[in-house]
Amino acid sequence: MQIQMNYFAQFRQAAGVSTSELVLEDQATVLQAISLAADRHGNAFRELILSESDQFQPCVILLVNGIPPSDGIKTILKDGDSVSLFTALAGG
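The structure corresponding to this sequence follows.
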């Protein structure tokens, strides 16, 4: 199956692109998609999203098809899905 990854803010800068297409096995999870994207885009990208133990960083905002997924990174993706990654922002 094929999905689209969309990168915003720091993720876009680290990846060097705003979107990428990934080909995954059927029944792949969001975590598997993110791991593949991290393999493609390098260590700086990986460190923004995943901890040393490959756990999802808490500062990452994740949307699947524009909606926060109820199962988070364990969400099973479908062909044509869109996964968007944002950084949590703080300001005043």
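The domain at 2-87 is CATH 3.10.20.30 (Ubiquitin-like (UB roll)).
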